[in-house]
Specification:
It is found in: Nucleus. This protein is α+β, with helices and mostly antiparallel strands and about 50 residues long. The protein has a single domain, classed as Erythroid Transcription Factor GATA-1, Chain A (2-Layer Sandwich). About 40% of the residues lie in helices and about 10% in strands. It is built from 1 helix and 2 strands, in the order ββα. The longest helix has 20 residues.
Length: about 50
């Protein structure tokens, strides 16, 4: 989605909830659960903006 440099350290915590991170998503290390929530929010905002 975004082109960004991914930090090389993978033993990171999720920046949202503090759980072990699964990867670098949306500009931060996040776990799979938070990645899913962020994805849903982005989709809802996108749909709302397109409807207006």
């Amino acid at each position: 989605m975004f082109s960004e440099e991914v930090p090389s350290k993978m033993n990171q915590q999720c920046k949202v909830c503090g759980e072990p991170a699964a990867g670098f998503h949306f500009g931060a290390f996040t776990c799979e659960g938070c990645k899913g929530c962020i994805t849903v929010v982005i989709e809802l905002v996108s749909q709302t903006t397109q409807a207006h």
